[in-house]
Design goal:
The structure is a single chain. This protein is mostly helical. The protein is 89% helix and 0% strand. The protein has one domain. Helix 2 (11-28) packs antiparallel against helix 3 and helix 3 runs antiparallel to helix 4.
Length: 94
């Protein structure tokens, strides 16, 4: 919802709803929600010309985005390794 207000240049409303989403994301440990909030808050503060806050949110966004990408890659590699091990076991039994 905050992103929609941001798109309409309603910055105070955007900030309000993005802050609510940030609070929820922190409480419930939702990194993908936080990533999106950080990106939108970076844009919001950039539009408000509050560049120090914009930079802080941009750095938080980049760090979280990288962390999520790394975790996704690790999960995919683990799944591939498990599949390979199952395939090897099946071939040994035949």
């Amino acid at each position: 919802m905050g992103g929609n207000y941001l798109d309409q240049n309603l910055l105070d409303s955007a900030n309000h709803y993005l802050s609510l989403a940030e609070s929820l994301g922190n409480k419930q440990n939702y990194p993908k929600i936080l990533r999106d909030v950080y990106k939108n808050k970076y844009i919001l503060y950039q539009q408000k010309r509050e560049f120090e806050s914009a930079l802080n949110y941009q750095l938080s966004y980049q760090n979280l985005k990288d962390s999520i990408s790394s975790l996704t890659s690790i999960s995919k590699m683990a799944a591939m390794q498990k599949e390979f091990e199952i395939q090897l076991d099946t071939e040994k039994k035949n």
